[in-house]
Amino acid sequence: MGSRQVKTSIETAPHTEPAPITTETPDRTLKLSLQPTQSEPNHARKTSKGKIPTGLGAEPLNIVILGASFGGLSCAHHFLDYTINHLRKTSTSPNYRLVIVSPSTHIYWNIGAPRALVSPGLIKHEDAFIPIEPGFHRHRGHQFTIIQGECVAMDTSARSLTIELIGNTAQKRCSQINKRGSKMLSPIANSDVTPKVQTIMYHALLMCTGSSANSDLLSLHGPHYNTIGALNAFHAKVAQAKSIVVCGGGCSGVETAGQLATFLNLTRRWGVARKVKNPKQIILISGSDRCLPRLKPAISAKAEKMLRKLGVDVKHNIRVIAAEEDFDLTGSCKIALNDDTSVIADLYVACTGVQPNSGYVPQELRDEKGYVRTNPGTMRVDAAGLRTYSIGDVASYSQNYVLDVYAAVPVVMHNLLNDLIAHELRLASPYGGNQDKIDALEDEVYVQRHVDSQLCPISRYGGVGMLMDKVIPATMVHMLKGHDYRVCKASMVVVNGGNPYAIKTAIGNKYE
After folding, report:
1. Separation of alpha carbons 468 and 458, rounded Å
2. Helix count (H) and strand count (E) of the chain?
3. What pLDDT was estimated at residue 180?
4. pLDDT (tens digit, 9 = 90+) per residue, 449-468?
5. Where are any strands of DSSP class E within 54-193?
6. Considering the chain, what is the average pLDDT of its residues?
């Protein structure tokens, strides 16, 4: 998946949670990216005999994954399927507990959002929203918990996360984690903890919180029922709407405009498409001089030709300044444009990009656009301290492609395993006896593929797209995505964290 192995070494230090207190000096340095020297806070709790419990007697160390979409689910299943089985190789090794934190109990198959928003019958809610927890039933032999909540703050020095919990079940589960661990916190920290806002300590942290679209229709914004409500409200208005404005000339905007025009303005009889008697006016506003600016001009021209054939009015070099919903008694939307004009439409869909879900991350760990500053090779967040990683749309390396997520998962999980093993080896020999084994650990390095892969279904049976820099025909776009928007792969993503776009190759029966 675009990765290569380079021998490196990682700076480590004693763990933040119950573990033997050691005096080793971190002397393992990272050759590809410098890991800052940092000592971890000691929250260890002694027994009645004055000794700190280790091994099976210690409180499990929390491996926390923030986010339960494509990246978070893939990392979680990888940890429970593979990583955990390669740990605990010494008598002093701790137990581990996987903690998954997500604001939603369901994933939203937003790959199919442009079609799902048109009509409730095209992609049903039960197909678009898949519960997460049943997908983990096969891991019941391991220690893990799924908590519905949102991380609102992160303290890298204390290695703690402040979680705003949603519902009684989440509060109970978080309280179970903190039953013993909360006694390790200072009285000041405990005084700020409420049942709905609790603190979780982490031994390792993977930030996979992704990004959110500006429209409630195109991505989750909190619990999944918020998005279901937005879809239901949109469906109710579509039937009566006479005009719809879609803003955004990227893939989401082009797909949304094309799907609306296809299923609202055309009817098929005997395999022949005909326009309905009173078609809806659909306007696509693009801020660039062409649609799909990331792709080749010839593909952009083809996409625009398909849209115009469907009856979509495409306007270029115009940006939306503001959109006022329900501005009059008819419930219409007034859309102000940067050319000092405005458009009034019955419905408005904002397909104007995404924002990273990184509000909980300290400002110094984010770049100017809000993305988490991630080492592009190792997926570590070097400035955040030991065993802290980030992948997917929230990370600075990503180009907001699904493939950027799945190509990085093997890298980050391999390096996480290395870091956990190194910590165990230091616990087993605090005076450096295992240094040769630690130095022998090899990290994987992610190599960004600078290729274009984008599939954009527009009509019922066609669209435009590129796959690994290769222009593909409309029929292949339909087969790979437009047929059902990969809904058939949704359960696979939840159950085993698989890549919905994986294609089996002839070499070694592998997936790329």
Report:
1. 20
2. 12, 25
3. 56
4. 877 788 999 998 899 999 88
5. 61-66, 96-102, 106-108, 129-131, 144-155, 160-165
6. 86
CA pair distance 257, 118, nearest whole angstrom: 10
Strands 388-390 and 204-207: parallel
Backbone torsions φ then ψ of 331, nearest 5 degrees: 80, 15
Distances (CA, A) of 89 to 15, 75, 202, 438: 17, 22, 21, 13
Task: Quote helix, strand, coil % in the chain, to nearest 5.
Answer: 30, 25, 45
pLDDT of 399 above 60 = yes
Dihedral-angle region of residue 183 (phi above 0 means left; psi in -120 to 50 means alpha; beta otherwise): alpha
Domain with CATH 3.50.50.60 in the chain: 3-33+62-97+143-210+357-446, 212-355+451-496
Measured from the Cβ of residue 373, the count of other Cβ atoms closer than 10 Å reads 18
How many CB atoms are closer than 10 A to CB 174? 26
Residue type, 367: D
Name the region of 184 (left: φ>0; alpha: ψ -120 to 50; beta: rest).
alpha
Q: How far is CA 346 from the centre of its chain?
A: 32
Distance, in Å, from the CA atom of 248 to the CA atom of 288, rounded to the nearest integer, reads 9
**Going by C-beta distance under 8 Å and a sequence separation of 6 or more, which residues neighbour residue 197?**
152, 162, 163, 164, 165
Q: What are phi and psi of 509, to 5 degrees?
A: 60, 35
Rounded CA-CA distance 352/117 in Å is 16
- Please state which CATH number belongs to domain 212-355+451-496: 3.50.50.60
Cβ neighbours of 504 (radius 10 Å) = 10
The Cα–Cα gap between 148 and 368 comes to 29
Enumerate the β-bridge partners of residue 320.
337
The CATH-assigned architecture of domain 3-33+62-97+143-210+357-446 is 3-Layer(bba) Sandwich (3.50)
The tokens of 203 are what? 């031994």
* Residues 6 or more apart whose Cβ sits within 8 Å of residue 61: 15, 17, 18, 19, 94, 95, 96, 97, 203, 204
Structural tokens at position 273: 């498409």
Maximum distance among all Cα pairs of the chain, rounded to whole angstroms: 85
The radius of gyration of the chain's CA atoms, rounded to the nearest angstrom, is 25
Using the predicted structure, report yes or no on whether residue 405 has a pLDDT greater than 90.
Answer: yes
CB burial string 275-300: b at 16+ within 10 A, e below: eeeeebebbbbbbbebbbeebeeebb
Pairing of strands 61-66, 96-102: parallel
Q: Cβ distance 274 to 266 under 8 Å?
A: yes
